[in-house]
Write a structure and sequence with these properties.
disordered C terminus, single chain, disordered N terminus, 305 residues, alpha/beta
């Protein structure tokens, strides 16, 4: 009788040990595509946290980039470019100095448009070579990624996610021409949502509302400069007419690097998440010098009725 009881007991102990070591969840596979510049610093912490939680991340980037370097918590896969290092530096590093120029405003605007055109041509060249590289696309398909994490402002990551038919998570500050609102079918009333750059508040006069409505019109040219070539590329790939809204609307979740402290409140959709301040986790104490310079401004504001 004791022998008969011992056998099931041994099996039960074995089963419990097996369940103890068996992973209850399996980590996902994340493709981080075409994120560079300041957005990369935000995503770097996200990728590090994903690795800690057992997920695998592959970062896809041009071999010429601003900040992306290999780390032990993700796999870096670089893509060759037709640009030389010197051309890349001239194009992108010049943009850093433009913010400090004090020349004529029209000249600054034209220089900005030219810089954006050059950046768009660079990423379009890399993106076109990637999407026409059948062996690489086959490799990405066979990797069975669960999600593509990208900044849609560069558009190539969003287009790649749609081409691979993989769900996409977008992280962004904003997209020109309010394409993010349009893609999510989100209400965007110009009557009370101040446009970024207008310096309007949420209490606008009639003329300020008119300015708020007219302000997006010049942006349509910027979108033409930035995205027309990508729209043509998408239509070529899918063998049908593909609009920018079609590409952007592929996103499952939108992570906005903002909040209603930095920005005025506005309508949002259920798949919009505000992550403002996520890149401020490694904050440093304010130095006495900075605090001394900042304090008079605070005291002056307190006197305003």
């Amino acid at each position: 009788m004791m022998l008969q009881l011992q056998i099931p007991l041994v099996r039960l102990v074995g089963l419990l040990l097996w369940l103890h070591v068996l992973p209850w969840t399996e980590g996902g596979k994340v493709l981080v595509a075409f994120v560079d510049g300041s957005p990369w610093f935000t995503l770097l912490d996200v990728v590090r946290e994903l690795h800690t939680r057992g997920h695998q991340a592959v970062v896809l980037a041009p071999e010429l980039n601003l900040h992306i370097k290999g780390e032990d918590f993700f796999t870096l896969q670089t893509l060759p470019t037709s640009y030389s290092q010197e051309q890349f530096d001239q194009n992108f590093k010049r943009q850093q100095h433009m913010f400090f120029e004090t020349q004529n405003i029209l000249k600054i605007v034209l220089d900005n448009i030219e810089t954006m055109r050059n950046a768009s041509e660079f990423y379009y060249g890399v993106c076109s070579e990637l999407l026409h590289n059948k062996s690489l696309i086959r490799q990405l398909n066979e990797s069975s990624f669960d999600v593509v994490l990208t900044d849609p402002a560069l558009l190539c990551g969003a287009l790649l996610a749609k081409y691979l038919s993989v769900p996409a998570v977008f992280t962004l500050r904003l997209i020109p021409c309010d394409l993010d609102f349009e893609a999510m079918q989100c209400p965007n009333p110009s009557s009370y949502i101040p446009r970024l750059g207008t310096k309007n508040s949420d209490h606008m006069t009639f003329l300020q509302r008119v300015k708020n409505m007219l302000f997006p019109l010049p942006q349509s040219y910027i979108c033409h400069v930035l995205y027309d070539s990508f729209q043509t590329l998408a239509s070529e790939l899918f063998q049908r007419e593909v609009s920018l809204v079609d590409i952007f609307s592929h996103a499952s979740v939108w992570l906005f690097r903002g909040d209603f402290v930095l920005d005025y409140p506005r309508p949002i959709m259920p798949n919009m998440v505000f992550i403002g301040g996520i890149n401020c986790a490694k904050r440093k104490p304010l130095s006495q010098v900075c605090f001394g310079a900042f304090l008079p401004s605070v005291l002056q504001l307190e006197k305003i009725p």
